[in-house]
Write a structure and sequence with these properties.
Layout: H1 7-12, E1 17-19, E2 27-34, E3 45-52, E4 58-63, E5 84-87, E6 90-93, H2 99-116
Antiparallel strand pairs: 1-2, 2-3, 3-4, 4-5, 5-6
């Protein structure tokens, strides 16, 4: 496994909350901790990166708290890794590559959802 050069930057965001707009209607929250390396968390981190609105509703989230089925019904596959993303009401697997890519993917989703709401960051 290659050294994840952006991991320390990601870990340093743990506990941070940033307001996105001047009115305080949207904010992002970061929870990132080292953990034991397991098949579910092969990179040794547990994370939750989220965008919330003024009602504290999660609009975007990238985390590895649980597994997510791919497909539906009895033939649905459950990947070993827990990495996935929430966008509004959908949940899809997300392939963790490294910390920098995770942050880029998260901010791209945040920008996309906020743009749909007429907010540019």
């Amino acid at each position: 496994m290659n050294e994840d050069s952006g991991l320390e930057n990601l870990l340093n965001l743990d506990g941070e909350t940033f307001f996105i707009d001047d009115g305080g209607k949207y904010w992002v929250k970061f929870e990132v901790k080292r953990c034991e390396i397991t098949p579910e968390r092969p990179f040794g981190i547990k994370y939750s990166l989220t965008l919330h609105d003024k009602n504290n509703e999660r609009l975007v989230g990238f985390d590895n708290a649980h597994s997510v089925s791919q497909g539906s019904g009895p033939g649905a596959k459950r990947p070993t890794e827990f990495d996935h993303k929430h966008r509004l009401q959908t949940i899809k697997p997300h392939q963790y590559k490294d910390a920098q890519t995770l942050l880029e993917d998260f901010w791209n989703e945040v920008s996309s959802v906020l743009a749909q709401k007429g907010i540019e960051i």
